[in-house]
Amino acid sequence: MHQYDLYGIGAALLDTEIEVSDSDLQSLGVDKGVMTLVDDARQEQLVEDLKNHMVTASHACGGSGANTVIAASYFGLDTFYSCKVADDDNGDFYRDNLAAAGVGYPKALHNAASGVTGKCLVLITPDAERSMNTYLGISAELSVNELDSEALEKSRWAYIEGYLVSSPTGRAAAIALREQSQAAGVKTALSLSDPMMVQLFHDGLKEMLGDGVDLLFCNREEALKFCHTESLEEAAQALRDHCGAFAITLGADGALLWDGEQEHRVSSPKVEAIDTNGAGDMFAGAFLFGINRGMGFAEAGELACRAAAQVVSQYGPRLRPEQHAELLEQVANA
Question: pLDDT-based confidence at 61, cuts 50/70/90?
Fold first, then answer.
């Protein structure tokens, strides 16, 4: 009997979103459109340089994996999340956010060690692009100790955040989770997470994938970089060596899906994008909800594209709780 539909693992980060201009990024020396790992001093300097922008900042418990699991929970899945927070105000805030979203987590999360909970500055430019500067803090120490084998064995799916590849102990935890899932008959899903992660940690991601996962999530740029090609068709073919099925998001062009037997192209609703932060995370959460509830890949992809389009049309990496039910109604009536 399954207690959880989805068990996730990832870095726990307190997201702070700030609206900036392209000239701000240039003057700050921030690489546009990717996630850059920084130390505490660099992040504090960025906060100081952006202090005049902070009045419009918004805060949320985040991290890619958490965004996906929380979305899946709001859609209606029973979810569980392994992460690592510190014994500080941000750690308390993070636990409260998980609980408010109906996400279970290991009891050990209440016995947090001293340190600093991870933080991510998400800089949003007028073209809706997000540029992330992440200080992992105690999340860099995420390890196999944060796994809850009992909860995992009672789950249908395990979801692994690709960002864990940047931490040696996090990568080991991701590999252990995949191996334990496969031994227990739990289906596995992994997201490549970010083009910079693929570029810098290609071999580490291959190690995390091992002999293959059941479902791989990535966007077009990540797929091309991972497969060392400039052809989407070639990448789609090469990815089959690493997974039983995949979902490649294509931004405004929707998604390319492979269910293990045939490909599907799904279109995306036309919206005015103002903030792309969290689009891929939302796509994965909605898609995992769909296939957990018996949808075919095309139908799950339609829901996921609608959800991602809704996210990019408003600020923040997640939707309001009631918006998930509205999306399900839209798909049902389509």
Answer: confident
